[in-house]
């Protein structure tokens, strides 16, 4: 106790200095008696709770999305970077999703392009009768949405002597085909050697395979529709809503880059039925054609039917060849 009016002695000053905390904040951060929470701990806890609440609020709108991707699909690596083991897990995940959604045990494969193969399509305009059986066979084979209805193939009706595709009609409704005075021109993805759709994709979700097929990774597509705008053949389709396929119409023989079910917000298109063609079969549209107008095969094989057609038939057109896209889809006449 210092006495008023008397200066502090040196011993007393030293004693007071030794009792003063070295850092004023140490008094604030001392652990309170009784195991309570000090100021620093309180602020840290408050910040953590606030951060969690803010994150939950920001993610809340995602709960309203009906077809939002799963975490497993969201974290999936780029297709070309997947190891065989990782791809097996992806295929198993898709099979589980198909069974959950449709009650069907599907077999999903990752079929690769084969060496020494370049697929080419040739269509005999002389023989096509406009029956549209190819359209419906494609829908059934490739698990296309029935509601809203999506079709990869359009059959155009044109009057004899005209090739003005801008005036072609693809909503014709004839009682019998073929109709007198008309011919028919089925159009689908041209599998261009120089595909403009591939160039514009900002995330590389579509690319050209070694066998000439341009494919789409539905798990990588962001739905920007740049490819749809770039395609001069109106060959790509966008899923504006969730595709609907009746459970009894599901084709369980699936391929990752082919006919597995798509989801809302992604692009899709013809892929030459790669779940069939890479396994040594014809596309569904070729098999169903009653007039034998459709031909398909490996143009690098000199003994293939398509190689013979390109050498010996009157191959008169590649659609919009002036654009320099070099379609692999050829139209020809018998004579």
Describe, in plain words, how this protein is organized in 3D.
The chain is α+β, with helices and mostly antiparallel strands and 335 residues long. 28% of the residues are buried. The protein has eleven helices and twelve strands. A hairpin with a 5-residue loop joins strand 5 (206-208) and strand 6. It has a four-stranded mixed β-sheet with strand order 10-2-12-11. It has a two-stranded parallel ribbon with strand order 1-8. Residues 1-6 and 24-30 have low confidence and may be disordered. It has a domain at 119-333: Alpha-Beta Plaits (2-Layer Sandwich), CATH 3.30.70.20.
SSE sequence, one letter per element: HHHHHEEHEEHEEHEEEHHEHEE
CATH class of the domain at 119-333: Alpha Beta
Largest sheet: 4 strands, mixed
Number of helices: 11
How would you sum up the global shape?
elongated
Count of extended strands? 12
Which structural class should the secondary elements be placed in?
A: alpha+beta
CATH architecture of the domain at 119-333: 2-Layer Sandwich
The CATH topology of the domain at 119-333, please?
Alpha-Beta Plaits
